[in-house]
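Fold it.
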Amino acid sequence: MIVDQRGGLAGQLAVSVWTWGVFFWLLRTSPREWRLPFYACLVWATAGEILLSLVWVLYTYRLGNIPFFIPPGHVLVFYLGLVMAPRVPRAIVVLVPAAAIGYAAFALNDGSDTISIPLTVLFILCMQQPEGRRRYAVIFVAALMVEVYGTWIGNWVWHQDVPYLGLKSANPPLAAGAFYCALDVLVGLTVRGLKRLPRMASAPRLTAST
C-alpha cells in the first residue's frame, strides 16, 4: 500500500500486477477445494466495492477509482482467515465480539462512529455460524488492521457522513471488519449453492404417466 500511495498511477498498477500474481499463485498452490471459494470471493468483493465505494460512497480511494488490486486483496484477507483460524486460541471467539460490542456501546454514547453499531450487529449475526466463528474473528481483526493502515497513509478515506442513513463514520469505522465477514458468509452460501446444482441436475425427474 505504500507503493500505491507514493507511486501514483504507475505505483497502483505495479501493486495490482503483484497482487493478481499472488492471487493466481494461491489458486495454483492452495488445496483444490479452496479454488471455488477464491473465485466466489473475487466476484463478491468486486460487486461489494462497486456498491460501497462508487454507489453508496461510504469511502473513496485516493485516485477516485477502485484500484485493480483491491478485489484480489480481499481474497488474500479471506485466505489469511482460512489459514490462521485453526491456529488461534478459541478465546478469540469470545474476546473479539465482546470488544466489538463494548465499542458499539461507546459509539452509541459518543456519536462519532454510529455506523459501527449496525456493523457490530452484522458481525454478531455472522458469528452465529459455529463452523466459521474463529475465521470471522480473525478476519474482523485483520480487516481492521488493513483499514487502519490504509486510511492512515491516505490510500482511501471513509466519509464522516453516511449517505442515506444519517449515521456517522470514523476513518475507518472500528467495525468495518463486519463487511469482510459478510463477504465470507456470501462466499460460503455461493459455494454451497453451486455445489448443489450438479445434484439437482442429476436427480431423477418424475414424469406424468399417460
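The longest helix spans residues 177-202.
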